[in-house]
C-alpha cells in the first residue's frame, strides 16, 4: 500500500505543485532477525501480538492477524523479550498437563511424608524367614509327625524242638511315649530270638529285666540247670552276646535294673532269653524286659 503525502511550494499565488512519493513496503529489512510474517503459524502470530500487548481474541481471519502484526512491527517499539521466547511459547495444553501432574506429585509427597511419619511411629515388621529355612522346618515337622505315628514292634515265634514246628507267636507294638514291656520265650536256639524293629526318629530304652520266681524255682529243680541269660544282637554285630545272666548260685534277686540299653532307629535288634542248660526236658523260663519308647530329639534339632 502507498500513503501519499503533499509537498507544496508557492511559485506565485496562481500555481502550486503536488508531488506524490510512494512509501516503500514494510519488509524484514527493518528487523532482519524476525521471521517472515507470511510464513508464520497462527499460534506464532498470536504470541508475537501478545508480546506487543495487542489483544487478538476478536480476530477471525489470518489476514487480520498478519495486518495487525505488520502495523505493530512498523509503528510500535520492539518488545524487550527476544524472539526465541516468542517463537517457542509453551502450549497451553502442556501447561495444563504439567499443572495437573504437579498436583498429584505434591499430594503424593504429602502421602509419602505422612506414610513415613506413620511408619516411623509403627514398629518394624519382622523379617520373613528365608524360603530354605521354611522348607527345612516343614520337612522336620513332617518327619516328626511320621515318627510319632511309627511304633516299635516286637515279634517272636515259639517253635517246638527238634521238629521246628511253630506252636505260637508273640507280637506287640509300642508308639512313642508308651512304656515298653515284652516277654521273651526261653530257648537254646538263636533262631528263636525276638525281632525288635525301631523306626526312624524313634528310640527304645530297656531299663530292666526280670524272671518269675516260681518259674525259675521249678526250672532250677531240673538236673544240670544253671539259669537264663538275656542276649542281644544288632545289624552291626549279629553275634548274640549276654547283657544279663540269672545264675543259681550267683544271683541274689530275680530282677535286674539299670541296664541302660538305648537304641535309636532306624534299627533292627534281636533279643533272646537263652536257657543255660536244663532245657532237655522242654521246660523254659520267660525273661521279661521293660523300658520306654520315645522320639529321638537329636533327629529334630
Distance between the termini: 106 Å
* Largest sheet data: 7 strands, mixed
**Shape label:** rod-shaped
Indicate the structural class.
Answer: alpha+beta
CA-based gyration radius: 58 Å
What count of helical segments does DSSP give? 6
Please state roughly what percent of the residues sit in beta strands, choosing from under 5%, 5-15%, 15-25%, 25-35%, 35-45% or over 45%: 25-35%
Q: What is the typical, i.e. mean, pLDDT? A: 77
Helix content: 25-40%
Q: Detail the poorly predicted runs.
A: 1-30, 82-87
Order of helices and strands: HHHHHEEEEEEHEEEEEE
> Count the strands?
12
Description:
The protein is an alpha+beta fold and about 300 residues long. Strands 1, 2, 4, 5, 7, 8 and 11 form a seven-stranded mixed sheet that branches. Strands 3, 6, 9, 10 and 12 form a five-stranded antiparallel sheet that branches. The two termini are about 105 Å apart. The protein has helices at about 40-50, 60-75, 85, 90-120, 130-150, 215-220; strands spanning about 150-160, 165-175, 180-185, 185, 195-200, 200-210, 225-235, 240-245, 255, 260-265, 265-275, 285-295. Helix 1 (about 40-50) runs parallel beside helix 2 (about 60-75).
